[in-house]
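hey can u check if this looks right to u? its 235 residues, i copy pasted from the old doc so theres a chance i mangled smth
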Amino acid sequence: MFGYYDVPLGIAKEGISLSVKRKGEVLLYRRECVDEKVEKILLASTEKILINPIEPLNKPKELTSYLLIEFEKTLVVEPGATQKIYVTYPVEIGVFMSGDKDFEILDIFTLIKQKFTLYGDPRSGVICKYWRSEVYSSKPSINLLHEGILELSITNTNTEWVEVTKAVFNAYGMKIYYSDDMVSMKATMKIVKGKSAETDFVDSPLEKGMKKSFELYTVRTLSVTATKFVMEVGI
């Protein structure tokens, strides 16, 4: 489903129905997904549509730029070690139309139910999109329209064993790649002081030949001051 399309186009897959048809001098965009229906008239001469996975923090509306993934089982990381695991994350899909110089966002949808949580205390904590995932030692099988794979390298710089139950990420650092059978990201977690850690993303595909997604958050922001997230109130 992901990739570039010529207009007109029609897609029907796993509860998603999407079409762009020319009607006189305008284009008619229609999309149905789950219980949501969208229709838009495009006053544009575009002949190209891009559909790709985007940062999963836009639906049902932009409440936060942070994603919290809670692990189904607690990880115990030995001192001085770097361990690699795989977890999943929710997929959101962006539809872009070609403009004069670049692609502009037209629509965003998802097949995943949305949940939010608070990281930290009620007064100074941050709202996060919430996702719960099993922990895998190798790449799991997924439905790429529902879930992506996150390869997470965890480094424990402490001299003691550390338990890890979750990870929080900043959407402005996300680098998403996709292929015909996978959506993925790579990230790091550096445990620095007991229950504190720093997370960041790696701009690299999980497998050779994967295509890089058009970054929605980067397009919307003129200057990004930070892409990392510091977990100071527990991991």
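The CA atoms of residues 85 and 137 lie 5 Å apart.
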